[in-house]
Amino acid sequence: PVTAFILQVFSALVNTEKTGADKKLQKVKKLQDVIVFESSPDLSDNTKAVFDEMLRRGMNKRYKLVWLLFKSDSGISSSLPNVYYLPHWDPQAVYFRKVAKAKICCNRFLEKETPEQLVFYLSHGTGLKVVRGQYNLPHWVDHCVAASPNLVDSHAYDLSFLPEKTSSATALPFSSTVTV
Length: 180
Hints:
Blueprint: H1 2-14, H2 16-19, H3 21-27, E1 32-37, H4 45-56, E2 64-69, E3 83-87, H5 91-99, E4 100-105, E5 118-121, E6 143-146, H6 152-158, E7 166-168
Parallel strand pairs: 1-2, 1-4, 2-3, 4-5, 5-6, 6-7
Helix pairs in contact: 1-4
């Protein structure tokens, strides 16, 4: 289910006891509490579901949540604290990309600016179409999340990605009581 998928990605990002990801984030002093999001079209796909769940859980109290927009005419603004919708070319967006502790994407691959950043690729349906040889996951992606355990092997193969860095929603450490 979509809810389990969202919670798995969320847990992998913030659950210190289960994954150590947050400990890794805390060690990075030069990076800031910023998470950058991307999808195509803007504000859609698996990334939008994760973004909405993070908002529902109040993650914007701890992190700045920055959505990179690829249509400059989007004209979206937020009244929520620490939530930004910025054209990807905007100088503030460029800054946030450089200092973000994590990037979550499902279409365009958001490149690591530093080795300490975490990049999650949410595989927006690649198991439903042939992508082998059309595009591969870049080496800087830390984790690929498949929507189903049945898609893990095909994602790793199709995307020419390391199987040990590809998980399904049910394979990631999970806690229904993730706290910030």
